[in-house]
Amino acid sequence: MDTLSKLRQRRLANARKPAGRLGRLLVRAMNTSHYRMTRWGLSHISIGKQDTILDIGCGGGGAVHRLAGIATNGKVYGVDYSAESVAISRRTNKRFVDMGRVEIQQDSVSRLPFADSMFDLVTAVNTHNYWPDLCTDMQEILRVLKPKGSLVMIGSVYEGGKHDKRNQGYATLIQITFPSVDDLREIFERSGYAEVEMFENHDGGWFCGTGVRPLQSY
Fold it and tell me: What CA–CA distance (Å, rounded) separates 153 from 38?
């Protein structure tokens, strides 16, 4: 592997759990690079002013900031298992944190530190590729959703999209999961979600998947 490839691999691997100076740069860049994709993805769901929301893999806190600006009488939580991401997300949302409307903490999607049936909405932007076990982790999200609460998953790294060749390179270099839109629909349903819908923006190279916790799931 040449030097350029090694540097690229190091950068991509750092995206899994950002750390150090490179991690800080990556996390800050996410707030810009994910902006349009996140806006498009969130357009497929309804967000109430009083909603309690969780953003998983909150990165630089851009999605948390957007959600807090919509759920003006609710509360938004963010979790990320990177300490660098948590620190930057807290700074990005300092005003909302100081107001008690946003709370950011370091935790894993596999063991969410929240009570059953706590959230109206859970969001996940460009993070599911790194989860240890996608189906099991989506079931953990189902646990913390209220009955009829929704999960919205938004991303640009998936099989079969506009950037398929690039994404295949990512998957090979750092061994991430790489499901297609159809695969994700099946995973939503197998994980216990109802009313599953999948959307794809071919020009942007983005997907959005939504699912609802059934009334009788637990």
Answer: 10
pLDDT tens, residue by residue, 115-140: 999 999 999 999 998 899 999 999 99
- Residue 99 contacts by C-beta under 8 Å, 6 or more apart in sequence? none
Question: End-to-end alpha-carbon separation of the chain, Å?
Answer: 49
The residue among 55, 50, 8, 9 whose CA lies nearest residue 34 is 55
Exposed, middle or buried, 71 (CB in 10 Å: 0-12/13-18/19+)? Answer: buried
> Model confidence over 43-87: pLDDT tens digits?
999 999 999 999 999 989 999 999 999 999 999 999 998 888 899
CB-CB neighbours of 82 under 10 Å: 22
What CATH number does residue 56 fall under? 3.40.50.150
Establish if 217 belongs to a structural domain: no
Sign, CA dihedral 50-56-60-62, equals negative
pTM of the model: 0.86
